[in-house]
Amino acid sequence: MPDARKQKILITPQSVQVRPVETRIQDFDPITIHFDEASARAEADRCLFCPRQPCVNACPLHNDIPTAMRYIAEGQFGEAAAVYRITSTMPEICSRVCPQENLCEGACVLGKRGTALALGALERFVNDYAGRPEPPQTVRTGKSVAVIGAGPAGLSAAQRLLEKGHAVTLYEAWPAPGGWMTYTIPTYKLPRPVLQTRIEYLEALGARFVFNTRIGRDVALDELRQQYDAVFIGVGAMKDTAVKFEGKDLPGVYTGTEFLLPVCTPQAISPNGYAMPLVGEHVVVFGGGDTAMDCVRTALRLQVQQGNKPHVTLIYRRTEDEMPAARKERHAAHEEGVEFLYLTAPVAFRAGEHGRITEVIVQRMELGEPDASGRPRPVPVVGGEYSIAADVAVLALGYGPDALLGEQSPELATHQWGLVIADSETGETNLPGVFAGGDSVRGPNLVSRAARDGIVAAEAIDRYLMNS
Q1: Is the Cβ–Cβ distance between 182 and 192 less than 8 Å?
Q2: Is this model's pTM higher than 0.90 or not?
Q3: Between 205 and which of 10, 131, 162, 184 could a Cys-Cys bridge form, CB atoms 3.0 to 4.6 Å apart?
Q4: What number of CA atoms fall less than 13 Å from residue 69's CA on the CB side?
Q5: In this structure, are residues 44 and 36 in contact, taking their beta carbons and an 8 Å threshold?
Q6: Long-range contacts of 358-361 (CB under 8 A, 24+ apart)
Q7: Average pLDDT for 181-205
Q8: Helix or strand or coil: residue 295?
Q9: How far from 427 is each of 263, 431, 454, CA to CA, in Å?
Q10: Above 90 in pLDDT, residue 225?
């Protein structure tokens, strides 16, 4: 190994500081403390500039991380931010919500021998430092595009199309843009002013938003195809998984969306029918993904704010080894006092004398042969049922697509469960001029992958428009 690389390995890593547990569980403010300029430069100076660039290959957006690290190490933070913006439409958001330990940081060579570069924290630092970019001057093409859905895929497609000079109108079923980023990601992970700055950038580019409009119900897809030169479908997958447990409709039993939305969303942009949950003394959350982690950590904060002693239990039907939630989210939940109960699944919910849930009937499980996901299948243990006290139960069991658009647009090719069929390289669907990407094609996935799909589709849409 060259001496210069050996010296880099010996540089002391800069820790990413977080607020103490006892203070952070009292509010929904961000828990991570930014690097300062000196620590950012020192951390970036650890980069080995590997010739094979494993971090770039592991990033869904393929950000040019080594070049950004060079700029940061030299103190050129604005230039580093500009590098991220070449490949990413929302680096200030992805740096906060993506599981870097499974992506760029997980691929960092330094992590194989010690501590990986803090790539998420560095990306967040330089993009916050640089602030909102100025909209570029563009020549209008006279072409128009309808974007269905204003989540990460739709916003990313719209941004790239606007930057190329096309007129873009975004149709959103909810009262505000952002999708998951607005309605269910807790503000301790993604402060809403960060997202609002991104929306303001699109508005400065000329984006037009039409809210409370669901395509397939309020406006037909075919109508959009007649009005616009192209259409992008980015409706996401925000439908909670349906369950059949006895007592699932009892007061105090929530889906992930029902629980998170009123906490994460200002009342002014909250849809009707969502009320702030009263969490009581015993909260149980079922699930093993990032939404389940968001629910347990949100429940803790609500208990503190509502004057109850924190007592939250995360119940998962497999073991921690099979848990899909990001490791840093699991670690934070453990730190904050969440109790984890593995190899256990819900069976039924029981009400007390006032009609609200008071207990959950659960079933002990054991791991069997692998299922379609490749993970061991949880199998019920004979005679393994028992009850747990619960004032609130949250079913954070995953999400799927809303099949309405496909049902009301039979000409559009979809999978049986509602996902749109689209070319993985271009986002093209079976309909000329109609493209799709993000969770509406992939199913529930990362913000960065949805953003990448929007960017890729925008390039294909631009080619389609300019050649037609």
Answers
A1: yes
A2: yes
A3: 162
A4: 22
A5: no
A6: 358/389, 358/390, 358/391, 359/387, 359/388, 359/389, 359/390, 360/284, 360/387, 360/388, 360/390, 360/393, 361/385, 361/386, 361/387
A7: 97
A8: helix
A9: 34, 11, 8
A10: yes
